[in-house]
Amino acid sequence: MSKKVLILVAWPYANGPRHIGHVAGFGVPSDIYARYMRMAGYNVLMVSGTDEHGTPIAMQAEKDDISPQVLVDKYNKQIVEDLYNLGLSYDLFTRTTTGNHTKVVQNVFLQLYKNGYIYKDTMSQAKEAGTGKTLPDRYIEGTCPKCGYFPARGDQCDNCGSQLDPTDLINPVSKNTGKSPIFADSVHFFLDLPALKEALTKWLKSRKNWRPNVLKYSLNIINDTKPRAITRDIDWGITIPLPNWRDESNKKLYVWFDAVVGYLSACIEWARRKGDAELWRQYWNDKNCQSDYFMGKDNIAFHSQIWPSQLLGYRGLGSKGGQTGAYGDLNLPTEVVSSEFLTMEGKKFTSSQGIVIYVKDILAKYPVDALRYYIAAAGPENNDTDFTWESFVQRNNSELVGSWGNLVNRTLNMVYKRFSQISQIDMSQLERNDTKLLSKIESVFPEVANLIESHKQQAGLSKIMKLVNDTNAYITATEPFKQDDFRARQILWVCIQAIYNINTMLAPYIPHSAQKVLLSLGVTNQKIPMPQIETVIDLDNSNRQYPIITGDYKLNDMAIKWQMTYLRGNSKIAKPEPIFQKIDPKIIEQELNGLINKKII
RNA sequence: CGCGGGGUGGAGCAGCUCGGUAGCUCGCCAGGCUCAUAACCUGGAGGUCGUAGGUUCAAAUCCUUCCCCCGCUACCA
User: Nearest nucleotide, C1' to the C-alpha of A465?
Assistant: First the structure.
């Protein structure tokens, strides 16, 4: 049995379509990693889904005068389509409003409760005057008691940086209505983070290979750990699974408490759909299975603190002791891979002000791999990075089309025009130039593998692109178009092998084009796996259907493997058509005008 | 002293953990080639690596001072 890896990807919030900043943060990087890991022979399980509970969705549904379920159905569908169109190869992309998820979340809650890590307490809470609806801290504004700044928010003053409680504000008002909120006591359940602090700290300190900033940040915030309310006064969410609370329609579990449990519940749903309801245990209960989480940097706290705390408490490993529940000893995260942020022509993405490029819009106009390549090459892996249309066009035209696409195209043209097929040659007769290039390519396989496994995908990609340049230089140096047939066959054979193997390494980054390259090389017994959308029936509610992303990524061994491989046989090739298209630089101005018209820049 | 990240040729970045000729992509200049999507290849100009000091035979890299940018406990990823 090959080594198992769980790839757990942040759950997009279903309150609107996703923009390219979202997918640059968690989507494309996690898919590159998953595709590589499968090619390298790991047994991968990758899951995610839409996150569909919480106040913002409830409020927006009310504004749109529809039920929250109708709202999330709409955006779930759209997000599923976006991620599918990007070719993200989830084994299961589901959602948090399923019967399965609800049950798993409630089981986790009950075990935590039983072990003593969840307790009841009273807190003062702001409510909307008139409707009596709960008002989240950030929807309250007023004058800061420390510096007099207005408008300071209920949680923090932007001017002096003070941490605030809504009750501290002078003349607090609701951002929604402008009226003063009403403060009232409310009973809630709390996750006892202090009781888990020691176990959590110990665990964090054993995470030697994490990126230093993630580790530092996590250890830092742990110092002033407080119990955290995990229920809310809201009617949209998962029911509290306790007597006297089940029927309380206005108290539900806090959205973050349920969202992170999705990582587990989605694996359970995957196993149930596979027909072996216990299959997920191979990933979650096996200590040797690693679990890698992908997210934007704003989510670090939930993955390095809240979720591990829930898991530790579930297993009874905090200061209050306890026992593990029916799910057994669930693995804590091995890696928390966080991306930085993407900005848009120098501004932060903000859908409310239209500073945004939606995934569906960009994919409607430009090839999917142009976007994937851009994100892979210039995305926010280590620093915040700025998306500009100019650099998008330039990267596509110069690197993807000019270097790589042209290499494929010029080689195939020479082969087609002169021999109309890829001819076999005797490798032992190759010249030094030839073998040098081939062994160089072979040596890059393990180098890129190391880089991707240590989450340095950009460095990996630039190593591959260096090989593209080397091969272009090789053609210039050997001048196959001036050689006799014997030598020309040799050179072109070497070029074909170079292209085939470089294409293998590019496959995790730009899978759609990798498939096209395979076809134009006449390779039909290998494929690049792609996800599918399927409509399924809720396993716990036969009246309900929803779309999922899933797929067969092994393809009965037709999937391509991460290793230097020589193409054999004399495959005929068709008249080559360019695989990569240039993007007209005029679109830079057009797209920018679009933004100017919206008065954004 | 709240915490953290960053300041490297015109632009965007790598290098800094483990000090030793400053590297990549784009742009610019010159040349080459013509198989290819005016593509590709070669060479060149251009940097006192934010500032001031220290350690060292040697510092972008280690230590200290100061300056400037940017995030930060909110489901805006």
Answer: B25
Spanning CA of A348 to C1' of B13, the rounded length in angstroms is 20
Among candidate residues A584, A579, A588, A587, the one with its CA nearest the CA of residue A401: A579
Q: Is the pLDDT of residue A595 over 60?
A: yes
ipTM: 0.90
- Specify the nucleotide whose C1' lies closest to residue A13 (CA): B75
Tokens found for residue A190: 């709390």
pLDDT in tens, A53-68: 998 898 889 888 999 9
Per-residue pLDDT at A601: 45
Please state the pTM of the whole predicted model.
0.93
Spacing of A324 CA from B2 C1' in Å: 38
Residue A559 CB contacts under 8 Å (≥ 6 apart), including other chains: A38, A39, A526, A527, A528, A529, A553
The torsion region of residue A165 among left (phi > 0), alpha (psi -120 to 50) and beta comes to beta
Q: What is the mean pLDDT of residues A408-424?
A: 94
Instruction: Please report which confidence band the pLDDT of residue A1 belongs to, taking 50, 70 and 90 as the band edges.
Output: low
Residues A342/A25, Cβ–Cβ less than 8 Å: yes
User: Which is higher by pLDDT, A236 or A125?
Assistant: A236
Q: Which nucleotide lies nearest residue A136, CA to C1'?
A: B74
Average pLDDT, chain A: 88
Model confidence at A484: pLDDT above 50:
yes
**A430 CA to B75 C1' distance (Å):** 60
For strand B, the positions having any atom within 7 A of a protein Cβ are: 2-6, 12-14, 24-27, 32-37, 39-42, 70-77
CA A5 to mean position of chain CA atoms: 15
H/E/C letters for each residue in A149-196? CCCEECCECCCCCCECCHHHCEEEEECCCCCCCEEEEEEEEEECHHHH
Neighbours of A550 (CB within 10 A): 20
- Measured in angstroms, what separates residue A461's CA from nucleotide B22's C1'? 22
Q: What is the pLDDT of residue A123?
A: 79
Within A43-87, residue ranges assigned H as helices are: 55-64, 68-85
A321: left (phi over 0), alpha (psi -120 to 50) or beta: left
Average the pLDDT over each of A216-230, A258-272, A448-462 and give the range with the smallest value: A216-230
Residue type, A224: D
Residues linked to residue A93 through DSSP beta bridges, in sequence order: A48, A549
- Residue A267 and residue A389: Cα distance in Å, rounded? 38
